[in-house]
Amino acid sequence: MLFVLFWSTGFIVARAVAPHADVQFFLLWRFVAAASFWAVAAILAKGRWPAPRKFVQHLGVGAMMMGLYLSLSFLAIAHGLPAGIMALLGALQPLFTAALMLARGRASPSVSTWWGLLIGFFGVILVLLPRLRGSHVELAGYANVAGLLAIAALTLGTLAQRRVAGEDLSIASCVQNLGAMSVAGLAFVVVGAARWDGSVVLWGSLVWSVLVTSVLAQGLLMWMMRRSDATHVTALLLLVPPVAASFAYLVFHETLTWLQLTGFALALAGVVLARRVAT
User: Fold this and answer.
1) Inter-helix orientation angle 111-134/83-90, to 10°
2) Residue closest to 57 by CA, chosen among 205, 160, 180, 177
3) What is the DSSP code (8-state) at residue 21?
4) d(CA 194, CA 217)
5) Is the C-alpha dihedral spanning 245, 22, 63, 177 positive or negative?
6) Mind listing the pLDDT tens digit for each residue in 91-106?
């Protein structure tokens, strides 16, 4: 529950930051701050740092799961992709995860898992349907491609997370944020700009994104991925768009219809069904 609440605020932060700073510049500072936080935590915990090969693997996972995912997501929103569409694309991630695991023969999702994912995704569509009707974005558009690539990066990074598990969580988080920082730095050099107006909203968004999204939400995701099946964990992401829509109502006064509330209920039911252990 905490993971869904914290992770859902990412779309609110992206929307709040765009008018005040270059999104890649913002992400670069976010990853620098998050890596510094985890470095201090790792030093205090006196954990054992990984060998060079494992260190590089953690860098790659962080670059994929956080760096590419967030850089492409923020870039898509900054270039006109509605936050609702980005949230809907994010709801595809559990289906991508289950499909990849099935294709690789790692684990066959149960029938209840597939039905839960499909029901949950249908609920997400109902939540976002008003936004979908009001948007006229071509499927071949630049922002849409960036959004799809972002979800692909999140899917691959999430699956790779289990393969590099073993180190202390603070150490793994520090190294992975360094990997994400390298991607954000490259994106800033290529497409970014040093735009930062120093407003209260911007600084507040940075503090929130570091402590709540990068530390708490991503820490919870890594912790759960080490202790549960990837399909069951990523099924929780189906709840993100409905919760994000609720936050948008509270923060930006966007209305919620009965259709959207019905979709939220379906998404919740789908997650419960998808997380059931097959008997």
Assistant:
1) 170
2) 160
3) B
4) 27
5) negative
6) 677 767 766 766 666 5
**Angle CA 146–148–154, to nearest 5:** 100
The helix/strand/coil state of 140 is: coil
The whole-angstrom separation of Cα 44 and Cα 135 is 49
Dihedral of CA 8/12/17/22: which sign?
A: positive
pTM above 0.90, yes or no: no
Phi-psi region of 240 (alpha: psi -120 to 50; beta: other; left: phi over 0): alpha
Q: What are the structural domain ranges in the chain?
A: 2-109+136-229
Nearest to 94 by CA among 271, 228, 218, 254: 271
Which pLDDT tens digit goes with each residue over 225-267?
777 766 667 677 777 777 877 777 788 776 667 887 787 788 7
SS3 content of the chain, % helix, strand, coil (to 5): 80, 0, 20
Q: How many residues does the chain have?
A: 279
The tokens describing 194, both together, are: 């040093």
Q: How many C-beta neighbours within 10 Å does residue 156 have? A: 19
Q: What are the Cα distances from residue 88, in Å, to 42, 123, 200? A: 35, 10, 30
d(CA 151, CA 156): 9
Token digits of residue 186:
């490259």
DSSP state letter for 104: T
Cβ atoms 274, 123 nearer than 8 A? no
